[in-house]
Amino acid sequence: MRKIAIASGKGGTGKTTVATNLAAVASRNSIRVAYLDCDVEEPNGALFLRPQIEEKRPVNVSVPGVLEGMCTGCGLCREICQYGAVAVVNKNVLVFPGLCHGCAGCWMVCQTGALVESMRTIGRLEMGRADKVDFVQGILNIGEAMSPPVIRQVKEAAVDADLLIIDSPPGTSCPVIESIRDADYVVLVTEPTPFGLNDLVLAVETVRMLALPFGVVINRSDTGDGQTQDYCRKQDIEILAEIPDDRRVAEAYSRGELACDAVQDYSAVFASLVERLLKG
Amino acid sequence: MGKKQQELVIISGKGGTGKTSIVASFAALAGKCVMADCDVDAADLHLVLDPQVIRSESFSGGKRASVITERCTACGTCAEVCRFDAVTFDGPPNSRVEKTFRIDPVACEGCGVCSWFCEDDAIDFGPAVNGEWFVSETRHGPMVHARLGIAEENSGKLVSLVRKEAMNLAEERGIGLVVIDGSPGIGCPVIASITGADMVLVVTEPTVSGLHDLLRVADLTRHFATPAMVCINKWDLNPQVASEIEEQACKQGLRIAGKVRYDRAVTKAQINRLSVVEYQDNGCSGDIRSVWESVSSLMQST
Fold first, then answer.
1. Which of B294, B292, B205 is nearest to B255 (CA)?
2. Number of Cβ pairs closer than 8 Å across A and B?
3. Which end of chain A has fewer CB within 10 Å, C or N?
4. What domains can be seen in chain A, in order of their start residue?
5. Inside any domain, residue B257
């Protein structure tokens, strides 16, 4: 199985467009494909792949549960917690689940049994099939701050496939790391504008720090200045594809249609990208 | 209320809808405001505003564990207690054992549980530097911005810090408005940027993704009881979806601040390191002006 993560520093550069078209085109060329939507804060892959959801399940994380009357007020739980998620007032433990990272420290140090491991739901997984593509998406509940546990569970739910496509969230911080850290290859999607380039440089630093092989797709490649192409050449970064700005593609996207279905030529663009990505 | 300064936060749910371009134009139109770039892991506002840094500080949002190799006895307790798969048995040898444990700084969540349970006192648990933050002067007023280190955690804490410093600066200089450039998504940095703010402007685009993400962000602003308005950017790319967004926004009780037409001048302005309203007077600049007017008049009336 080859795991390809689609990422970008800047949002809105075309990650989901690239990820969903790759999945669709590869599956039509008899490759077994699984698509994982790890952008769990704003998952959009389903709008384009339109999967039949066959299974839903909650994403639970560990949090401390309090057994009344057991606390002696020793304060060890408060002492070990780095996140301010537990407080002790007059032999009573108060838990703030939204701040908890699930490290298990508090219930491990509790000597009296006042704190025990319990579960809290922070989102859900949805699994199904979109044509021939195996589809998994994670959805973070509104108001929840921490997406990495949902992302972790999306990845654990992946079935076996020849090609695993991971649609990552934008940025360079923990949700991105969680999405791409065990990928075989990372595709960084950018646009050739000053904002796009600035964020591409950050994304390149990120994948280099994780020592992951990567290449760049320049979307709307004819819209900006030539600086992104220059940067890639100077840094010896492979440009996997340049996709010109095309109103037909933008309109198809706005309606939730795949570029490879809406405009004939794009099937070939993504087919050759699939071929390149499977080569390693 | 008690606070004289008002905070306006621009977010989008979906990335790339034009948040930062709108913020840069607002900065030019406001006359006097403090800007805060709270998109701390992919900050772009500085590219347009050309800030001259007058103060820079390092940011430590948490701690990080590391194995002190010479003390490690390879007992494996750290790996057993770690919930984040951050401990691996592939560290260098020492005088006692052939292999020691090692902590992956990227996977480490900074909980310190390994260090607490280590009987050999072989795990150092100290403050981690997660990023930097700056106070700068720009042609449109002062600006607070930051850079989260690559692959770092605690973006929410850094966002809160940037917001707090921007408010302090506004108070110090007698400036009534703080304009905040937020980050995409609905997670920790976004929550940290909108809680307690006076107004949120959601910049969306007329696509099915834009609409889907707008509805999630609308739920979020409602969850945190922050007043919100909507700006439909590039509305003429798909007028049909744009009017659907207007309809849905209405149902959610969100006021439409205005629509901005698609205009290639936005990219050209960016390349010239200018906000769109500085770059040209016609085209989408007029649309952005009227969005600004409706946002600022609503804020003044509250």
1. B294
2. 179
3. C
4. 2-58+123-279 (3.40.50.300), 68-113 (3.30.70.20)
5. yes
CA dist A154 and B288 (Å) reads 40
The torsion of the CA quartet A255, A258, A260, A266, rounded to 10 degrees, works out to 70
The residue ranges of chain B whose pLDDT is under 50 are 1
Q: pLDDT per residue over A201-255, tens digit each?
A: 999 999 999 999 999 999 999 988 899 999 999 999 999 999 999 989 999 999 9
Query: What pTM was estimated for this model as a whole?
Result: 0.95
Give the residue numbers spanning the domain of B261: 6-60+139-301
Phi first, then psi, for residue A131 (nearest 5°) are 55, -115
Q: Are strands A115-130 and A133-140 parallel, antiparallel or unpaired?
A: antiparallel
Whether residue B14 lies inside any domain: the answer is: yes
Question: What local confidence, expressed as pLDDT, does residue B1 receive?
Answer: 44
* Cα separation, A41 vs A48, whole angstroms: 17
Q: What is the pLDDT of residues A94-106, one digit of tens each?
A: 999 989 999 999 9
Answer whether residue B246 is part of any domain. yes
Q: What is the pLDDT of residue B277?
A: 98
pLDDT above 90: residue A46:
yes
**Mean pLDDT of chain A, nearest integer:** 96
- Give the Å distances, CA to CA, from A106 to A71, A146, B127, B195: 12, 19, 20, 28
Contact across the interface for B116 and A109, Cβ inside 8 Å: yes
B126 in A contact zone (CB under 8 Å): no
The per-residue pLDDT for B111 is 97
The neighbour count for residue B25, using CB atoms within 10 Å, is: 28
Q: What CATH number did the domain enclosing B112 receive? A: 3.30.70.20
Partner A contacted by B237 (CB < 8 A): yes
Contact B83/A102, CB-based, under 8 Å? yes
Residue range B184-201, pLDDT digits in tens: 999 999 999 999 999 999
A81-94 pLDDT, tens digit per residue, is 999 999 999 999 99
pLDDT score at A137: 98
A174/B155 Cβ within 8 A: yes
User: Minimal Cα–Cα distance from A69 to chain B, Å?
Assistant: 26
**Is B249 found in the same domain as B146?**
yes
Residue B193 contacts A where some CB pair is shorter than 8 Å: no
The strand ranges marked E within chain B are 6-11, 34-37, 52-59, 62-67, 87-91, 100-103, 123-128, 131-138, 141-148, 177-181, 199-204, 228-233, 255-260
Rounded Cα distance, B6 and B33, in Å:
10
* DSSP one-letter string for A192-236: SSHHHHHHHHHHHHHHHHTT--EEEEEETTTSS-THHHHHHHHTT
